[in-house]
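Problem: given the chain below (407 residues), write out its structure.
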Amino acid sequence: MTRQLSILMLLHMPWDENLGGPRPQMELAAEFRKLGHRVEKFDLFDAFPSAKKKSRILPLIRSSFANRAKAFVQRNADRFDIIDAQQGNLPFSKDDLGFKGLMVARSVGLYAFHEQCVQFVKTKWPSNEKGKAIVRIIRSWHKRRESPYPQNSLENCDLINVPNRDELIYIRDVLGLGGKCKVFPFGLTPEQQNEFASEICPARERLNNKIVAFIGSWSPTKGAKDWAEILLRIKSKVPDARFLFLGTGLSADKVLGDLNLSCSDCVDIIPQYKNTELPNLLGPATVGVFPSYIEGFGFAVLEKLAAGLPTVAYDVAGPREMLRRLDTQSLIPVGDIERLSNQAVELLKLDSSSYINLSRKCVEVARMFSWPEIARATIDAYYDAFRGLCANRFMGTVEEHSLSLGC
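Solution.
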């Protein structure tokens, strides 16, 4: 089918390509437009223009994004054939919304998995930070109010889009919604792949640099609590190893403090960067290490592979989708710091020929995840779901929507 579709991308965060959460929908929107479809978005700033002003109070007192999104959809329901909304953003029935097209609930990291990881972190690394009582009360109220939203959105949608097989299994076996769930990984465009590849430094130079690279926000779920020991273990066997932390979101002083370091002689910390700068930043690096405890997919792993960086990571959903294609030794049991560090050391000590071969394989694996191909498969799934919608309607309704939806 080549009928143009009108698609709404709906998400509770800013439409910003330098953030991980909105990136899948932004990249897909660009690809959908190339295929001839019309795409609009409704994001956090559309719902709450005041959110552009940085404030610690406003997020606590404003209404829920879901209600703002509901009102927008109700006003514009007849303008869209597809609503592609992140889980929890539209926890309402299509009748409530007045929407007759295809409603998709998208996961960029399943909420149920996130909650499990949060509880694990609280147990393993109890925090003494309490904050103001009124703030804790309001946040707790927000959480109670919105806790049913993710589940409701999955139940009310026509199609569930997840980025890894672990989430598919959970939705199928635990929630009983597997019949409408599809797995679509994330990817890079051919242009992005080429940019990473063009910045790869010669193997001999990389091996001499001995740079261990990490990409991600500095938080316990991303492995921040493990890095002090990882660094010490690697340095004990490779004394001249250096460490590059990208996109931490926190100052160098904070990161160094967590690493138990008073100075940064062997550590470079870049709290923020633009996506277009990343290929150049990774070009001189030697290996990637990613001790994240939870991922929807793991752009950080995909980008390292595209940069030809042999990478080790905890064996969790997301990174597993990529690294299982590379080398089983690249996937480390969750929390096994010793094994993770030892594997990183082995990579740092590779001979030039072995490093070149592994680096090339990394690039090959990364190229398996292409946004144009993912976008085409996604659109095909949308069309198939449309056929299902049409088949379940009365003939008069089928005829009415055949023109607008291409059924």
